[in-house]
Design a protein that fits this description.
The protein has 11 helices and 14 strands. The protein is of the alpha/beta class and 309 residues long. A 6-stranded parallel sheet has the order 3-2-1-4-5-6, with helices on both faces. The chain has a 3-stranded antiparallel sheet with strand order 7-10-11. It binds nicotinamide-adenine-dinucleotide.
Amino acid sequence: MKKHKVTVVGAGHVGATAGQRIAEAGLADVVLVDIVEGLAKGKALDISEAAPIMKHDCGLTGTSDYADTADSEIVVFTGGLARKPGMSRDDLVKANFKIIKSCVESAMKYSPNAMIIMVTNPLDVMAYTALKVSGLPKNKVIGMAGILDTGRFRSFVAEELNVSVENVFAFVLGGHGDDMVPLTRYSYVAGIPLEDLLSKEKLDAIVKRTRGGGGEIVKYLQTGSAYYAPAAAIYEMVEAILLDRHKILPCSAYLEGEYGQNDVFVGVPCKLGADGLEQIMEIKLSSDELALFAESAGHVKQTVETLDL
Ligand code: NAD
């Protein structure tokens, strides 16, 4: 059977780790693309030299040439800049917009039918950029964020209650990071509503820690940001699509009327399978939750308006 092919653009911390997880799970051959060719080549070689030990036969290619990415089924975009001292958030948006626009154009030239998983920040804005630049239908462009946010939330809840992480189910909507809208009333531990198990104070503290989860790690690392958990979240999306699992996961999706929003990418529960985003699950929100969601979507729209799209 022919192997799946996944390209990861950006062979930095997140991209290379995602490539490693995908290959080591035996899911697909992986092409790592980076503007720094040696980085992509070196990391691909290093990961592939572990293949006999990790017991898989997935190939890894490192390159700067998009011709090597031809006929990929999924292209994951993690390339871009991190904010440097003196750089405003707006400067960063403009810089990453330029990078993502040109990377999407190059990748689509060789894999016009691929699905896109966007990871580069600001995530919802870059996913919107990819949709418009690629001309792909909305089921083929999905952003990664909510799986990471819920992963953080679930791990903190499991730690607090001293239960397996597998017992904790959590729900978030909205933009990535500060803007996320955690729905604790839709969160459960082995079927038991989370709000029956934790006090409001404890829950609020966990929500706060989840919102700042990225920042907590940056503070420790000092020179970079989280990548193991983000790479795991990318892996879960790739797996759901390639194995056609019809799995419901919180992802950033293009909304056309769902949750009262139009023409914007925001985090919502998505069913992922072989057709990419197969369905956006709509759940009933309270007026407070809807207001928070609308505020979050509004922030994404404001940023999109500053771009030349
Ligand atoms: P990193 O700096 O380690 O890697 C970025 C890579 O992109 C570098 O290797 C760089 O050379 C490459 N690059 C830059 N311009 C490029 C271009 N034009 N073409 C190809 N490659 C190019 O950063 P990282 O820690 O891997 O993070 C990558 C991105 O993912 C950042 O934007 C970060 O904010 C974002 N991120 C998002 C989430 C999420 O939840 N969506 C989580 C973590 C990180």
